[in-house]
Specification:
globular; 3-stranded mixed β-sheet
Length: 231
Amino acid sequence: METAYQQLSLIEEVVLPAKTTSFGQWSQKLREYARSTALQQELDYWQSQLLEPSNPLPVDFAGGDNTKASVQYVSSHLSSQETQALLKEVPQIYNTQINDVLLTALVQAYAKWTGQSTLLVELEGHGREDIASKVNLSRTVGWFTTVFPVLLNLGDTFDQGNALKKVKELLRNIPNRGIGYGVLRYLSDEPLINEQLRTLPQAEVVFNYLGQFDQSIWQSSLFDLAQESSG
């Protein structure tokens, strides 16, 4: 948008880089991926992930309302110093990514709350994974996403450093950043596979790290994040 605006303001023709893989082409590639041998080999991984025991979340009113109208929100924030430590200092010491740290904190908080060291979580990722040749999604507009289950298990590890290493290794072992789960569950031509994944335990917690928005807009940009409420 900024490039087009600048060119128009100079009374120039709008010239943008070439388009990349279309959303339609990507959909077709996903269909082909669903039939691939490589993806079929992931089925055992997803089944083993979800067959391990995971306790449901404790609730105050079992069978109570679970509607949009009954939703409540709890928001919190970190100081700039804490944010700096989280994004810069901890990754340098433990060679981790931000998800490793946040998910470790999540499962430790859950363990402190419930006494259970195992938590089934649905992770949401950006979904633009490199699963096919001649595919380039870098300039493709659309909401690509992956949602997949991860069983966070601390076992007997409660020391923060060791817990972080354990969660880090668990996340690194997820094949292709989790995209295969949704492809197998929704796009597989094998009804038995669809049914197997559909009937496995479902997570009650969803986790999504949206990223660092201050890095997506340059200080010299013509555009900035709006200050008004999103409603």
